[in-house]
Amino acid sequence: MKKKFYVTTPIYYPSASPHLGHAYCTTLADVIARGKRMRGFDTYFLTGLDEHGEKIQENAEAKGLSPQEFVDGVAEKFISLWKTMGISYDQFIRTTDPRHMETVKKIFSFFVEDGDAYLSSYEGWYCVHEESYWTETQVGPEHLCPECRRPVEKKEEPAYFFKCSKYIKDLLNFYNDNPLFVIPEGRKTEMINNFIKPGLADLCVTRTTFDWGIPVKEAPGHVIYVWLDALTNYISALGYLQDDDSLFRRFWADPETEIVHIIGADINRFHTIYWPMFLTALGLRKPSRVFVHGLMMMKDGKMSKSKGNVIPVPPLVEHFGVDAVRYYLVREIIFGQDGEFTPEQFVERLNVDLANNLGNLLNRTVSMINKYFDGIIPHLKGDLNERDKALYEAARATVASYESLVDSLKVTEAYAAVMELVSKANKYIEESAPWALAKDPEKTDELASVMAHLSGILFLAGRLLSPILIEKSEALFDQLGLKDDERDYEKAVGLIDLGGHVVEKGNPLFPRLDAAKETEFIKELMSAPKEKAAA
Ligand code: ME8
User: Residue 452: CB within 6 Å of ligand 1?
Assistant: First the structure.
């Protein structure tokens, strides 16, 4: 039986155009999904948009559009960006989809029937931007949203509440029994200390002050407040409480499916406190892991359209290529930690890792096979010496650590391990000195062995990197003369003999970039007029 794997990104608010921060999270999820598919897991990858709420209604009004027209327009931009970034999602869920709305209504009715949701009235400090109510302590004397530091307003309204108090014990037991539920672990401690220990209030789940939301059947005038609506996407997309729930049975209900939500720290509370509670109330299993990634920051703080510091992704991809941008995102920012984008580091990372390390290894190997063996990869005849042996042992160890690192969501480290192997192969060239072996007729076997080993490493590295390098890995296989049906994972990790394949020298995979010129190019993109940057 194939192992099953379900991975999701947050469903983003269509209140702004997507930027490199959104691309960061979605690309990581894509790299994880592609990596699992490559290894034969039955994989499902979900992303989408969170289209209801007051902020969206306001944004639409400001543009003279209906909320639906407005979100349709922004949805196109997101879908187009994901195409540009090569995102291989299986479904793009939108919370205005009638099937999603039906599921949310049914869930709400269950909650009311079971007494998990009750009508009361709410008074609190509300942040329109975060769509969140905060307590007096949280907003402090300046009355600022603790999340985005914008001014909050005092509001009172009738509202339904979800009875969190009923589920706290279950949640804490679940945390205890599943130490890997929240990664990095510190993110769980944060939740316990900041929200659970001070006393978790029941969660407001309906609103009456705007109407762009899913209407509550039980109480006209109420719409379902965004978080119950939004979190439900992870199961409504799979058909939960719908006529066809086969995906739900396959990817959620089955306790054997590994379910991973990738999110940013800003929405940790909703995913690691309320979402497990909703699921318990519905009698459903909880996700296996919530991975809280760090934010990609700019020199002047968080990337945001209002600050005018967003990096427009399409021109970056057009200029450097999709693989270069994907590689940068995965490799430069350690998954789980905040990172800072700088044009200098962007160019440097591409030059050091892709042009000098990987590109160079391929270029040198193919040139030498052309020069010494008329372009035909020599057969592998085992390890001829300690150097050969050490290289292939390192390769096998890399596969093992790559798989285990990816499985524990240490994505950056997993790909760093592959690049480390590529560096080792470059060093192996220096140490074997094929140019010297070529001068000695008695060393032909050794020379052949060096070429055979290098070809095996290139095939392996190309395969392991292919979840990131979606185009260049294929170009690499082309240069090794591999046919389409010879490129699979098992063959690559088996370090099979590629002898007899005819190499084909192509363009350099990643030409070396002129650092000064390219840095300038990115800086210009960043300072482009806002309308351009938002495109
Ligand atoms: O919160 N760096 O939507 P949202 C890295 N609709 N990631 C970033 C980022 C940055 N600079 N900026 C945004 C919402 N993100 C809700 C989610 S889910 C059921 C509902 C990513 O559009 C990051 O993953 O504000 C963050 O958690 C998410 O976008 C927030 O997206």
Answer: no
**C-beta of residue 290 within 8 angstroms of C-beta of residue 270:** no
Q: Is the CB of 266 under 6 A from ligand 1?
A: yes
CA of 321 to the centre of ligand 1 (A): 24
For residue 508, the Cα-to-chain-centroid distance in whole angstroms is 28
Measured CA to CA, the distance from residue 130 to residue 213 in angstroms comes to 16
Ligand 1 contact, 231 CB (< 6 A)? yes
Task: From the CA of 271, give the closest atom in ligand 1.
Answer: 19
14 pocket-lining for ligand 1 (C-beta < 6 Å):
no
Question: How many angstroms separate the alpha carbon of residue 264 from the centre of ligand 1?
Answer: 6
Per-residue pLDDT of the chain (535 residues; tens, 9 = 90+): 889 999 999 999 997 778 888 999 999 999 999 999 999 999 999 999 999 998 899 999 999 999 999 999 999 999 999 999 999 999 999 999 999 999 999 999 999 999 999 999 988 898 888 777 788 888 999 999 988 899 999 988 899 999 999 999 999 999 999 999 999 999 999 999 999 999 999 999 999 988 999 999 999 999 998 899 999 999 999 999 999 999 999 999 999 999 999 999 999 999 999 999 999 999 999 999 999 998 888 877 777 666 767 788 999 999 999 999 999 999 988 877 888 899 999 999 999 999 999 999 999 999 999 999 999 999 999 988 999 999 999 999 999 999 999 999 999 999 999 999 999 999 999 999 999 999 999 999 999 999 999 999 999 999 999 999 999 999 999 999 999 999 999 999 999 999 999 999 999 999 999 999 999 999 998 876 554 444 4
CA dist 425 and 136 (Å) reads 59
Q: On the CB side of 114, how many CA atoms lie within 13 Å of its CA?
A: 15
Say which residues have a Cβ less than 8 Å from residue 123's Cβ, sequence separation at least 6.
154, 155, 156
Choose the residue to mutate in 9, 24, 272 for probing ligand 1, maximizing ligand atoms within 8 Å of C-beta: 24
Write the single-letter amino acid at 533: A
